From TrEMBL:
Lineage, broadest ranks: Bacteria, Bacillati, Bacillota, Bacilli, Bacillales
GO MF assignments: DNA-binding transcription factor activity; sequence-specific DNA binding
Keywords: DNA-binding, Transcription, Transcription regulation
Pfam families: AraC_binding, HTH_18
PROSITE patterns: HTH_ARAC_FAMILY_2 (PS01124)
SUPFAM superfamilies: Homeodomain-like, Regulatory protein AraC
Natural source organism: Lysinibacillus irui
HTH araC/xylS-type domain segment(s): 171-268
Name of the protein: AraC family transcriptional regulator
UniProt keyword annotation of Endoplasmic reticulum present: no
Length: 274
């Protein structure tokens, strides 16, 4: 296979994103998304880390990331990756789940990997419909059947085992980062909010969230920058408005997390408006 190809579509009927990466060698650092990611490997192998567990993923495997699940991956033996995924915002997942189950909740996928899943073909079919910009109701029908089957087979309730007091302190820190992401933030500030010393904060935050406070902050900033780019804001302005020190710093983080440059991501929505 030749040069890397990265294709993204936003489906306005389903209100979800579809990514297709072909011939990818890029290593993705530890990060998370605010939305669900449901993807599958068309070819290639990767070493995946998710919530501090290690996996080897390959052709035919389905990948699940719940919102805020931290994850990282890298190639094995420099093998190229062909990968497709759907990105589904929580409000869309909640709406569809309620229609399917009659219950108002967000499903939690128990494992990030379903090896050689039979559901991969249905996921592939839906993804290709989005890539082909199909507009008839077969696409929506396939979407509902897919989510129904994935929820029934791969999701389960997750017990809340973290100490309530410590978890609340970490939630307070997360909330602060989500509100003040555009400002200069010091570790001392976060430690005061959590009523912990700096080391205890770093240890507890990483244990509970599976990601460091700094990586959490940078991911929040990237997610906020995405929203601005979707509305046509220039990459430089998006960088400044979300707390990055310069456009280069912003571009490096954005490419590392999303797999596209800020300009490429912005162009998706400009083209769709046309």
């Amino acid at each position: 296979m030749g040069q890397e190809e990265r294709t993204v579509r936003f489906d306005y009927d389903l209100q979800i994103e579809a990514y297709r990466f072909e011939g990818i060698m890029q290593k993705f650092p530890n990060h998370f998304h605010e939305y669900y990611v449901i993807g599958f490997i068309e070819s290639g192998q990767r070493r995946l880390s998710c919530k501090n567990e290690e996996y080897v993923i390959g052709t035919g495997d389905i990948i699940f990331f719940n919102p805020l699940d931290n994850h990282a991956c890298e190639s094995i033996d420099n093998e190229k990756l062909d990968y497709r995924c759907l990105n589904i915002k929580p409000e869309i997942m909640r709406k569809v789940t309620k229609e399917i189950t009659g219950q108002d909740y967000l499903p939690s996928f128990a494992s990030p990997v379903a090896c050689r899943s039979e559901k991969a073909q249905l996921l592939h079919n839906l993804h290709q419909m989005i890539m082909d910009e199909i507009t008839d109701f077969e696409k929506e029908e396939t979407f509902y059947f897919l989510i129904q089957q994935l929820i029934e087979e791969y999701s389960e309730a997750i017990e809340d085992t973290e100490p309530r007091a410590i978890k609340q302190e970490i939630e307070n820190v997360c909330h602060y980062l989500e509100v003040h992401y555009a400002e200069h933030i010091a570790l001392d500030d976060l430690a005061k909010i959590a009523n912990m010393n700096k080391y205890s904060l770093l240890r507890s935050f990483t244990q509970i969230r599976g990601i460091t406070p700094y990586r959490y902050l940078q991911t929040v900033r990237i997610n906020e920058a995405k929203k601005r780019l979707e509305h046509g804001v220039k990459p430089l302005d998006a960088a400044i408005e979300t707390g990055f020190v310069d456009q280069s710093h912003f571009s490096n983080f954005f490419m590392g997390f999303i797999g596209l440059t800020p300009g490429q991501y912005r162009d998706i929505f400009i083209q769709n408006e046309k």
